[in-house]
Amino acid sequence: MAAPKKGRRPTGAQGRPGRALALILIAMVALTAGMFLSKQTTPRLGIDLAGGTSITLKAKSEPGKPNAINETNMNTAVGIIDRRVNGLGVSEAEVQTQGTDHIIVNIPKGVNEQQAREQVGTTAQLYFRPVLAVADGAPIAPETTPSGSPSPSTSGSAPPKAEGSGKPSAPATPSSSATSQGRALSEALKAPSAPTPSPSASGSKKADDNKATPSASGAPSGSPSASPDASASPVDPAVADLQTKFAALDCTDPAQRTAAAQGAKPEDSMVACGQRDTQWFKWVLGPAQVDGQDVKDAKGVVDTQRGGGWIVQMQFTDKGADKFAKITGELATKQSPQNQFAIVLDGKVISDPSVSQALTGGNAEISGGFTQESAQDLGNMLSYGALPLSFQEDSVTTVTPALGGEQLRAGLIAGAIGLVLVVIYLLVYYRGLAFIAIISLLVSAVLTYTIMSLLGKGIGFALNLPAVCGAIVAIGITADSFIVYFERIRDEIREGRTLRPAVERAWPRARRTILVSDFVSFLAAAVLFIVTVGKVQGFAFTLGLTTLLDVVVVFLFTKPIMTLLARTKFFSSGHPWSGLDPKRLGAKPPLRGSRRTDPVPAPVDAKEA
């Protein structure tokens, strides 16, 4: 008989089950320790189980866009809001349309409600506009000049410093007359200018902090003042209207701030408000030439180079990078404050840094006294894009978990009944093998529970009723894998093999069947997760997760533990309660130790011959 080839494991080899068991034990300990260290010892519950907040948003018609509220824009808005709130799409915040102009957002308990409301209601229209004039936020009281023309008061103060430090400069000197203010504003509006991102850029040149010098109060600064002159040319009506709005704007009044931000088109000049610390400022801003669609990516990070504050880093598209370099080059040639650009989000100025040279490289940053939350929120909104429509909150209601709690109890009872029936079936039919199946189910339950708890902290996964159903279905999938393996072992014993070789010979056949079955289940879960939304995704996610864990448990626990137990006398001897009794299974005589021989022919009688 030829010896097996060297280096090739002969059929029936036992492998090294101890290594696999040690590996899964280490994984269980690590996951459990991580769960306790993260202080998230229970899975986070969805809105149907834990309660939460339901926000109803109503789409608003924009001036000049009578047909903007349509199915396409509403569906686009739903997708953007869903990505903003859900992150990876499994935190179970529900976003769906209702009727033709309403969106319902259900936010589960445990999510920062105020932060979520800002995420879902903010349009996130971002523009970079050149600064033409700046003053403090109070309305400018007119006073009579010697020529009889009204001029702004001297109460204005300078804009915040560049780099978004949020520290206003010292109050400016008295402003010029209305006539000279009109001239200055007219010249500024005629000058080529455009919006631009923040002061510094990753891989690009930094903006000059010292450029943000105090500006005039009510009048736009950075332009030479002129004494009132009766023979001066008349101010352009559009400029005069803008000047009037600027002088009358009271940024301390929320209604006026909202009104100032509405109706301004990107190609038009506008007045806007912004806040630094507790003080409000107002700006006259030129047309926008760079907008949020030119931003490829944005994220809130800690500024380790300048004091450790929070900033928003942006990466522009190729087209946006060219626009940014061009406009910063133009602004660098101007005097303060017209060498500044304002970063305007939904009509509100969030930063107005100055530049001293063109910023190239396609990267920039916004720094404006951000907190961690506000920086990450802004980066999130810029990354996922602006909403195609403006929305207003129609209603905000609190959802109680009473109904979901009753359904959860009913679901858990159903799951417990199903589990008991599975265990009874295993005990009756497989007897001692049922012990292996039950221990394997417990291992799978521990892994599922710890991973779900960690995912709630890590990616915002929330357990809802459909997800609970997915976990219950997984009990059957896992039990099915054990049954496939046990039946393969029994088939080998019926062929006359002893238990230890039967365990090893049955594994390759059972392994293929288990992998194919689990692949089909995982593929169905993945397709369901992709093509559905809302709570159904919770079912698909849980089903896919438990299917993957079934493969892990069968390979790293069930098979190794079966190999070890096959060496014990109780199982190897075929005890009647082991579930592997050869007589009860109708086994054939052993293949080894018996040799089939041909019968000896009977002697032939001479008479017969």
Give the overall shape, derived from the CA principal axes.
elongated
How are the strands ordered across the major sheet? Answer: 4-8-7-13-12
User: Which structural class should the secondary elements be placed in?
Assistant: alpha+beta
Distance between the termini: 42 Å
Question: What's the number of helices?
Answer: 16
Report the β-strand fraction as a percent range.
15-25%
Counting DSSP E segments of at least 2 residues, the number of strands comes to 15
Helix content: 40-55%
Cα Rg: 37 Å
Mean pLDDT, nearest integer? 74
Q: What can be said about the biggest beta sheet?
A: 5 strands, mixed, barrel
Instruction: Outline the low-pLDDT stretches.
Output: 6-13, 143-182, 191-231, 593-598
